[in-house]
Every structure is written in structure tokens, then in C-alpha cells.
Amino acid sequence: MKGLSFEEKCKRLLELFYETSDFFQLKELEKIAPKQKGIVMQSVKEVLQALVDDNLVQGEKIGTSNYFWSFPSSARHLRTTKLETLREQISRIDNQLKDLDKEIGVAKVGKDQSETRTVKLNELLILENEKKRIEKELDSFKELDPEAFEKNKQNSENLSQKINTWTDNIYALQSYCSKTFNIDGVSFLKQFEIPDDLEYL
């Protein structure tokens, strides 16, 4: 079975904070995260530190213990600020790229090659790479967006409700068939190819 990527581990550990809205010590997270989020215990500390470094999780020493927490409301503010900063950087680089394109166009007129043109082309390449790096960072922030997490959580809850409604219907039909046609529960499930471990979510 393929292990989780580091980004997926960060996403899942952040989900744990959002879902519980609680405070944790590292030892507690090392016990809970493997069970609830499938993150191996040995990597919890590294993942937690990465989230702290990115200001997605807050930590503070209280007495002799370190506690960590993260709430969607505070994370949303931090991420909104970071997203705005990244978008401003991309906008600034776009403007620089346009200016360099113009300068390169001027440098090309009547010349096959020049030192100025070479320098500008190198600057253009550096800016394009920087823009790609920032866009990639921007995409990673979208993946951990608290608003997207809440939306996915709501969708999951809606699906669970629908599944439970169908489970209700199956049990009602099973009861009806049992009373009307004297069919026992095991035979009913087998007849309609329904798993015998059917239960509510």
C-alpha cells in the first residue's frame, strides 16, 4: 500500500485540529493521528512542525508542556492574508515579465545577439521560474483552505444522511418482507445481495 505524501499528511493532521477544535500535546497527536488519520507515528512530529512553521497551527509552552491548536476561523484569516500576498507577488512578476518582453523586443531590433539581450533573457527565465514556484505554493494553500475543508465536510455529512436514509429503507423493506412473506433476515439480505454487515454510518 502506497504511503501518504507529506502534503497529504499535513492536510490530514490539520483536519484533525479542525474537526476536534481541541488542544493537543505532541504525545497525544502521536497516538491519535495514526488511528484517525492514518499518519504514521514517526512522522507526526515533522508534520506538526511544518504546520507550525507555516503558521497553520499555533503552539505555546504552558508550564512544562507544549500545547498545539488550530481553529478554522484563525487559520482562514492567516491563509487569506498569505493568498493575497502570493497573488500580489504573481501580479508584480507578471508586470516585470511584460516589461522585460518589451525590453527584449527593443534589444532584438537590428541585432542578432547582444549582451543586453542575453542578460534580459536570463532575467526573464528567472522570473518565469519564480512565478511557477509561487503558483505552486498558491495551489498548495488552496488544498488546505479551511473553507474548502468545511465544504467537503458538509458534503460528506449530506452523503452520510442519504446513505442512512437508504439503510432505513432497506431495514423497513426487510421488516415488511419478514412479516408479509415470512422471510428471515439472512435470506432477505442474501436474496438482494446486501452485505450482512450493513449498518448506519
UniProtKB/TrEMBL annotation:
Q: Name one Pfam family in it.
A: LZ3wCH
Tell me which GO cellular component terms the UniProt record holds.
chromatin; DNA recombinase auxiliary factor complex; nucleus
Query: Where in this chain does the record put each Leucine zipper with capping helix domain?
Result: 147-201
Q: Where in the cell is it found?
A: Nucleus
Residue limits of the Mnd1 HTH domain?
13-72
GO-annotated biological processes:
meiotic joint molecule formation; meiotic strand invasion involved in reciprocal meiotic recombination
Q: Does the keyword Coiled coil apply?
A: yes
GO molecular function (one): recombinase activator activity
Q: Which UniProt keywords apply?
A: Coiled coil, Nucleus
Coiled-coil residue windows = 83-144
Keyword Ribonucleoprotein recorded: no
Broad class of where this protein is predominantly found: nucleus
> What is the stated purpose of this protein?
Required for proper homologous chromosome pairing and efficient cross-over and intragenic recombination during meiosis.
The family assignment reads: Belongs to the MND1 family.
Protein name from the UniProt record: Meiotic nuclear division protein 1
